[in-house]
Design brief:
Largest sheet: none
CATH class of the largest domain: Mainly Alpha
Structural class: mainly alpha
Number of strands: 0
Strand content: under 5%
Number of domains: 2
Radius of gyration: 20 Å
CATH architecture of the largest domain: Orthogonal Bundle
Order of helices and strands: HHHHHHHHH
Length: 200
């Protein structure tokens, strides 16, 4: 693992509580991290031109680097995000992969491998429809992970309010709650979701 793997890079973030659980080496937290971010890292690797098996190797190497230098990640401000930091690690692993494929090309050369190496920082493109789709998938995965933390009625109130867009008064009648309790349920689940994903 390179020192450059551990540098913070860009915006978006992940949960303080998830980071705490990761630093405590909780197996469930690592499993959750891989479920949430594994497909995103895989997409970044594939969008750089790698085949399936090479992309899977980069994913594994990126998460090994995360495990080795997680203690260095700092979430001090809105631009210090886990997702951006993970993107930086992935870019470093992609650079290493292309260097290995090219047999360590000379810096002054104009080879195809050198061109690929220069293009790595440009992926993934900012705000593409694919990125938006991945963000939706990320949110759905996070919701699936946190659902069991809530009572069924709380979850239904949240879902019908936040996802289905039903009025709180209608939901309250259906579930035997007050409209205020419906709004509180929605707030509690969204707050927990933000803890899991931050600003993503």
């Amino acid at each position: 693992m390179n020192q450059s793997d551990c540098k913070a890079d860009a915006p978006d973030s992940t949960s303080t509580s998830l980071l705490q659980r990761l630093r405590a080496r909780e197996p469930a937290a690592w499993e959750g991290l891989c479920q949430l971010y594994g497909p995103l890292v895989y997409r970044w690797a594939r969008s750089s031109g790698l085949q399936d098996t090479d992309a899977a190797d980069v994913v594994q190497e990126a998460f090994q680097s995360v495990a080795g230098c997680l203690h260095r990640f700092q979430h001090d401000g809105p631009t210090d995000s886990f997702r951006g930091w993970l993107l930086g690690i992935t870019k470093n692993k992609l650079r290493e992969h292309f260097r290995a494929m090219a047999g360590h090309p000379a810096g002054a050369g104009g080879t195809d491998a050198q061109q690929q190496l220069l293009e790595v920082p440009e992926i993934p493109p900012d705000s593409t429809s694919d990125d938006l789709k991945l963000d939706v998938v990320l949110v759905h995965r996070a919701l699936a992970l946190i659902q069991l933390e809530f009572e069924e009625r709380t979850w239904k109130a949240f879902w019908r309010s936040a996802v289905d867009g039903q009025p709180a008064a209608d939901i309250a009648k259906e579930l035997g709650m007050t409209p205020r309790a419906v709004r509180q349920a929605k707030y509690r689940v969204l707050r927990r979701l933000r803890q899991e994903l931050g600003g993503e």
